[in-house]
Amino acid sequence: MSTEPDSKRSVFAWGQSLRRLVRHEQFILSGMAFLVGLLGGVAAILFRDGIALSQTFFYGYGGERLHSFAEQLDWWHILFAPALGGLLVGAMVHRLMPDKRPQSVAEVIESSALQGARMRLGTGLGAVLISAVTLGSGASAGREGPVVHFSAVLTTFVAQRLHLGRAQRKTLLACGVASGVAASFNAPFAGIFFALEVVIGSYAMSTFTPVVISAVCGTLLSRAYYGDITAFVIPHHNIVSFLEFPAFAILGVVSAIVAISFIWAVGVVEKVLPLIHVPSWLRPCVGGLGVGAIALVFPQVLGVGYEATDQALNEEYALYFLILLIVAKTTATAVTLGSGFGGGVFSPSLFLGAMLGGAFGIVATSLFPHLSSGHGAYTIVGMGAVAGAVLGAPISTILMVFELTGDYALTVAVMIATVIASQIVIQGYGHSFFSKQLAKRGINLSAGRERGILRARRIPSVMRHDFVFVSPDATMKEVRQKLQLCFYGEVFVVNEDKTLVGTITLHDLSDAAFDPSHDEGLRAVSVARLNPPVVAVSDDLETAMSLMESSGEEHIAVVDSKESGKLVGVLHERHVMAAYHYAVLETRTAERD
Fold it and tell me: Which long-range contacts (CB under 8 A, 24 or more apart) does 396-402 make?
């Protein structure tokens, strides 16, 4: 009697069970996304309240209109409040941060791409405290970056406690980030696409649904707490003529120049301040004095700067003042971040874009008054273009502006300017703000996430100890015996202290491989290839793979360091390629799901 129908039914039942399991897993992940969304919203609320509390300590005022309040204070109060904040920040960074620097969005991107979405809770909470003191003391930085970091830290802590797998942890990390950004701006679309575009770097469908759930939850929680209000009060604008779009394109080019100048200025301060002979923990205090000095003339640079941004959007500033504020805010933020304060760059980017757009709009309106939509419209376009270029996040920035304005025609203008600015920054300068921060640590994700995974894996993870070695004065008979023992046909020549001298293959022996008549006059060092390519045990797999590609070697010696050259293992090409294949499969699978 045939059992084929029963076998088919068994296979069908197994397939149905597998599909139910997958749906069950997605259902659980969606439920966790709801909780993570609430967690991200709580993180945004707690951080904003923390800034208000810190600001009350330094200025006696915890509201959003800081620079208007500061104008009534004594000069010494404005000058020394950021310096005091810098003193506290320097001490906290020195004591709480393991690498002696504050943390923000770049660490979240690194954790997502290379560290399996793992972050330390204690370090993360310390970073939140540092950013709250930074912004509360009036130092010029943004609050959205710290919210992203805070949300990510809380989310990864929960995911690690639940012992979730790498893919689930990464998805929940994106959920936390989306919720934090959405709650900060009351803009769920911006939160969704910021998480996918900047932090995750892909739009996998398996990630998209949970991220949407979290962003909505964070938005609803923020609206329940603060009310259904946006970050800025923006008047409605209409595009007067399609002939105005070339002006928006030109604004995109100018926005790229401002964005590059801003990123460059932060790097300059980071290089210059160490030349001042003060301890590293005192540098934020020195930077705080610089910010305070600028604020004596331009109090608009203090803190997050949303009040000044809002005033620019409502066309309250003259042309000369807008230009001066661009210079003042760029300098103040560069000094803040370059000297070691915490905080982000989203708010300063919006500030700079608003001032640039306003100034550009005044000039354009004066030249072509009948074609201009008013310089307030250019303010919105510039705000999106500079922010998108600095962050390397054009999609999420465009969507954020659309959510803030609800004006489709104006959003088209923002698209044009933002895409042009972002492309000029990436193609001309080579880095957004976050990618430059990662590049300074030797991390480059532009080549692909799988290459990033290879950079995260060290040599010991694939290194083998099956190497065969001989001494430099070994006879040819001994060398032949060793080659027979080595399945991959390569023997390493090492000194008594295991220092690598060279390698020997059958090809290196040449005629001596089969002609023993010259054995008496030859030793291992005589036929060895001296100074072969090596990798250090501290190198990553990308370095090893690049070396194998350039040298043509299939087996490379691993030494404890390039200086000592002591042989500790061997790296086989097939193991390196297997690791690369796994990285590619892992990345491609996530993108297809």
Answer: 396/181, 396/189, 396/190, 396/191, 396/192, 396/193, 396/194, 396/197, 396/198, 397/190, 399/187, 399/189, 399/190, 399/193, 400/185, 400/187, 400/189, 400/190, 402/189
